[in-house]
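Shipment paperwork, digital attachment
Item: protein structure file
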Amino acid sequence: VIIACAPCALLKGVKFPNKCVPLSDKCKKCGMCLKPGCPALTKNEDGTIAIDETMCNGCGLCKQLCKFDAIDCVAR
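Attachment content:
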């Protein structure tokens, strides 16, 4: 069963008013933000997360999954 309150954020063409940025100093390298498979997120060599601004649609799912507040969503 799938219950959705909004269009799938991973679909092409869906855009939100924000962009997500990593806060590397807070990142604990747990990888929870990578679980949904967002193509905008990659892991750096040191284990922290990088977010490709050109691919990020600003949905904020990665921010919601991060227990350490290591991702912020700001206005584009």
